Amino acid sequence: MELLRNLKNAMAEILFPPLCLSCQNYLGSQERDSSICRSCQSKIIVHTSLFCSVCRARLPENKKICHKNSGYLLGAATDYSGPIVNLIHHYKYERWTRLLDPLKKVLHSYLDNLSAGGFDFKKFIIVPIPLHKNREQSRGFNQAEHLAQIIAYRYQVSIIDGLTREKETQIQAKLKNWEDRKKNLEKAFLAANPEMLSGKNILLVDDVYTSGSTINEASEKLKSIGAKKIVALVIAKTK
Hints:
By secondary structure, the chain is α/β, with parallel strands linked by helices. It is 38% helix and 16% strand. It has 2 domains: 1-43, no CATH class; 44-237, Rossmann fold (3-Layer(aba) Sandwich), CATH 3.40.50. The longest helix has 17 residues, at 100-116.
């Protein structure tokens, strides 16, 4: 039986050879689990700092040097371009959960960079952006929770379900107009466990930052219950 199974696997690789999700070149034996080749993985440039959530300027000391009235700082491991786009898309919409591993590597590199710059994760409580229960049931998981768990495990900090998503919104990626995205998220979130978040520093976690509508709405809700400092942390941001 083992011989037959190995023969089937060998035939499958001949007929359907594993290809890199980004460049479509053949994957080496040590690359197949991640579905991306080393060359494409190396093209994902990992950032070293936080950013302004308004103008997206780099903040070298992770402190506000512009738009000081903004509600939160933005942390993004990389830019939403190149190989990372396919990784996130297939992980999120095609349910290729094995792609969490290469995404985890990118996130870990960024977390290490922030830590080296003096960012103290232990001073924060993690709040993942929630999905509506229907969306989460359909997808099978919440990508923000997966990322939150990676950070929580690495720094031994708490995850609090500080928000619930009561409004079943359209998928933000399908809305190209900023005003439509903003309207889509209005009153989408309700605060949960406010007594555990009031006066606390919050690490608000999601996968991608595009127009900022989702994070803006969630941040405002957290501020309304007394959250102190908020840092939105994502895998990738648009430029």
